[in-house]
Write a structure and sequence with these properties.
This protein is mostly helical. The chain has 34 helices and no strands. The longest helix is centred in the middle third of the chain and has 18 residues. The relative contact order is 0.03.
Length: 586
Amino acid sequence: MVRGIRAGRLPQALVAALVAVLLGGAMLAAVPGDALAQAQPGEGAVRRAIDLENAAKYREAIAAYREAVAQGATGQGILGLERSFGALGQEDSLLPMLDAMLRAAPRDAILRGALLRTLRAIGRDAAARRAFDDWRALDARDPAPYREYVRLLLIDRRVESADSVLRQAVTALGGAKEFATEFADLYATMGRWDAAAAAWREALADAPYLDQSASYSLMSAPAAARDGVRAALATRAGTPLPLIFALARTVAWLELRWGAPRDGWRALSALPPADSTAQLWIDFADEAQHAGGALVARDALEAAHRVRREPALALRAAAAALSGGDAAGALRLATLATASLDSAQAASDALPVRVRALAELGRAQEAERLVAAYGARVTVAQRRLYARSLAWGWIRAGDVARARAAAAQGGGDDEDVVSGWLALFDGNLEVARGGLRTAEEKTPEIVTALAFISRAKLTRAPAIGAAFLALARGDSARASRAFEQAADSVPGATPFLLALAARVAGAERDEARALALWTRIVDQHPSSPEAPEGDLEWARALERRGDRAGATARYEHLILTWPDSALVPQARAALERLRNTTDDHR
């Protein structure tokens, strides 16, 4: 056995001798010790090898990685060779080099790990077990061989073997603390989610930076197991601050992946405000927006703004508020940002958000005055753009004539979103289609309008146009009635319009009327795309009324009648919930 060799780095002379044999007797020049101390060994060869590997030139990369090993970059070189040989399906080609190098440096953890992974990759399980035993025999209290081998066993889902090896490790080291992450992954693989979360909590106590690994490991927990995971990761009295942060980050990322960004923000919002916390909130806001949580992103960015006082954060929060339909919040945040900007920045960065927010609120006249107040700082081109926003503001205010005048000032034509809306309000479906489909941001309102137009078999529908106008003005009750009354007059779109009327009535808390409409869709239009939704809403209404038997019958009807519907999983989950609740009452 060779003594005094550091893990991960072989002496230069030894590496040179080994590589000379492996590469056919290539001669390597001796390098003075002083020079080695001044430069990273094999740095140039490693960079060249990585570039070749990234370009998928694996054979050339292998030669460069061999050169890097010869120059002393053992760790990077061996790992690069492992990847490159793997990409070519030639993993066994690495074995001769590993065997030779391990004879000289048997305690090198990088070489030992590479040997284990290579043997596993080529299916030599018995040899991999012997390699693990050999590594473990060098120092029974070294956790590295156990960790590496357990990781490979879990990748292959050999749960019983992984559990056995971990028990050996606990006995050898006198405790399980060293292997918290391995136990966490083992329990997750076994589906023991509470135990997995508890193990991750223990691991995070020593290594808070593992929050992303913890969330990735736990994200596959089924809905029924998630409350247990949340409980295991909850902050308790006396929890150290670093662990509080790690647990909050883990829960936040988990909730995002589980489709609950609001719950994720609830975990993060309780953290003490600081610059590092603000950055965490900003990062979370980015993820929340991608996950469809615009209003959660608004809250996170506003919280970050309270810490950093950067107007750009307030404007980002305002934009998120607009995306989430909170025009009032957007106006407040953009106005707040304006107070910290000079007039030029306010005109270029904050004014567009404020105008759009005012338009969404139907305060078009106020928006007009605001634009005028900036005078020459607003260019002619910008005024035309603002005119389009103002047109929508006048629509929201219920003044279609002024909306048309503003749209004309904006220089729009039929291929314009505002003109598309005005055409729809007139009942001109052909022109409306051409304008609405140009929208860069497909809001729910635009998606709904385009879906209706695609279903309608008419080119004109004035009554439906009037209903959409009532909806735009915020008169939901009138809009719902108008959609219902005109539904039969639009062939091809009748169930769609009834469903739209039902959704609007439901949003207005007119549950009786909404239920009557959903029932009508299920009974009269059972082959329509809206029928499964109608059955689901019918069942939910019965459940809210306490009619468990009726709700169960409707959920079962949905599953049996429309087995391919995307709503079937929701119906199954509701049935399971009802059955569990019934069992609890017994």
